[in-house]
Write a structure and sequence with these properties.
Immunoglobulin-like; 4 domains; 41 strands; elongated
């Protein structure tokens, strides 16, 4: 009998254990279909994207404040492919068991792009709890930015391109990189792109930043204010950084360049050389203004540093353009020349084209150039396209930016006054306490920043063919006085 019962128990014991485990697993207080845990954070969630439900691939991440390129934990961003139409998306914040859903508020609207903001679609508003959907007018990749400290949200269409001194358009005009729309992965690509041995960056929709605030005190050591999001990538191809340093191209030639976005992964880039480019033109390292009509007499070009002509910034479209503001005395001769009288050494007969809209230039008895009236002039030399063109026009200098009141170019309100008696050029009073931006205006110079300069500790420092200069702050009511002959100035 004992033997029989033991065998029976051994046979039914596994079944007993299985039933017991099932009963214990289905207690009254436990949900048989538990909700998956969602990581704390802010998400894009909506049928207009690849993520109709929560996904770590749709998480916002903290980014830098473009104002000082420093970390700002309150500023978060995500890039997301979005379909046009009513499906759209919401922004959803998760904090433990608490979820908040955000949508467009009453002030959500298309924004007029400010200085250096994206041009292909920009929207801004308050971060508002709402079940309404954010929607877009066309399929594309979008940059969504939230600042939790400011309670603001912005969105811009991200049509990527490449720009810089290495590219055909220089820093003035970007080259677009078309892409095929896809909700999960988009590859922006340009082929047969001629790249010089110089620098470039990726930026989208012809903008450098999204402005969320212009006046917030962020505790910056240099007094910079506001909150802005970067809309460009620098650094290196293997490690792209929002707002990072320019990317360097080492070898001249034709390239295929790609910028790939993938949801949850981010961005990666490649630049593959596919061919050699045409022979490049060469230009002198420096050109100088000399002659009895100038402050530099006939001293050998290169011996007086103040006589140097300035290179136009911007890369390819501006290479070979030199400019200088100086006082020219009527009835006396002048020339422009490379150092040590080497070519190009240009008298009146060596110039192929004079600017028909400029002041009349004639030859003196020695074949040099001369002007009919004394005054402050902008002398601009263009050596591009195998040509030698010279313009001599009455000098025009303008202010631009926050210290003057707006970023409108060539605005009469911000035009400096030329005093031909003192040989000084003086600004209007600064409208605000802010960084001072100013430039020489001339039709042959493509953009205002191509001929930008600053006054630093009594010296006029020129941008030339470099990048942005460190800012110099001014105080409302101050005036800038410039004496170009010896490149000195003051702010007072």
């Amino acid at each position: 009998m004992f033997s029989f019962n033991l065998k029976f128990l051994l046979r039914i014991l596994p079944l007993f254990l299985l039933v017991s485990f099932a009963l214990l697993s289905c207690g009254d207080d436990e949900d048989p279909n538990p909700t998956p845990t969602v990581e704390d954070g802010m998400y894009i969630k909506g049928a207009g994207t690849a993520f109709a439900d929560f996904s770590s691939k749709a998480l916002f991440t903290a980014t830098k404040n473009e104002v000082n390129q420093s970390s700002r934990p309150e500023l978060v961003e995500v890039y997301m492919a979005v379909k046009a139409g009513s499906d759209g998306f919401n922004i959803v914040s998760v904090n433990g068991t608490t979820q908040k859903v955000y949508g467009p508020g009453s002030d959500w609207a298309a924004a007029t792009p400010g200085n250096d903001e994206p041009k292909n679609g920009l929207w801004k508003g308050a971060l508002t709890e709402s079940a309404s959907k954010f929607t877009v007018p066309e399929d594309g990749l979008y940059h969504i930015v939230v600042d939790l400290g400011l309670n603001k949200v912005a969105m811009a269409k991200a049509d990527w391109g490449i720009i810089g001194a290495a590219t055909p358009g220089g820093w003035s005009d970007g080259t677009s990189m078309p892409a095929t729309f896809d909700l999960n992965k988009m590859i922006f690509k340009v082929e047969k792109l001629l790249l010089l041995p110089n620098e470039y960056k990726f930026r989208y929709s012809n903008g450098w930043k999204i402005e969320l605030d212009l006046t917030l005190d962020i505790g910056d050591k240099d007094g910079k204010l506001g909150v802005k999001a970067n809309t460009n990538f620098g650094g290196t191809l293997s490690s792209l950084v929002p707002g990072g340093d320019n990317i360097k191209n080492e070898v001249y030639g034709e390239y295929t360049v790609t910028l790939t976005w993938e949801a949850g992964v981010g961005y990666s880039a490649t630049a593959t050389k596919t061919g050699d480019g045409p022979v490049l033109p060469t230009y002198p390292d420096a050109m100088y203004l000399v002659g009895a009509a100038t402050a530099y007499a006939w001293d050998t070009p290169g011996t007086k540093a103040e006589a140097i002509m300035h290179k136009a910034a911007g890369g390819a479209p501006s290479e070979g353009i030199f400019w200088k503001i100086a006082y020219l005395e009527t009835g006396m001769g002048f020339k422009v020349s490379a150092a040590d009288w080497k070519a190009p050494n240009l008298g009146f007969g060596d110039v192929k084209v004079f600017d028909v809209d400029g002041a009349a230039v004639s030859a003196d008895g020695d074949g040099n150039m001369t002007v009919a009236e004394s005054g402050m002039y902008a002398i601009v030399l263009n050596l591009r396209d195998d040509n030698v063109q010279l313009s001599v026009k009455p000098a025009e200098v303008y202010g631009i930016g926050d210290a003057f009141g707006s970023w409108d170019e060539d605005k009469d309100t911000y035009k400096f006054t030329v005093d031909n008696t003192t040989k000084n050029i003086v600004s209007p009073a600064l409208a605000a306490s802010a960084n001072i931006r100013m430039y020489a205006q001339h039709p042959w110079i493509p953009a205002w920043w191509n001929a930008e300069f600053r006054v630093n500790n009594g010296v006029i420092e020129y941008r030339n063919d470099g990048g942005d200069q460190d800012p110099v702050a001014g105080t409302a009511g101050q005036k800038v006085t410039l004496h170009f002959d010896d490149n000195t100035g003051s702010i007072q």
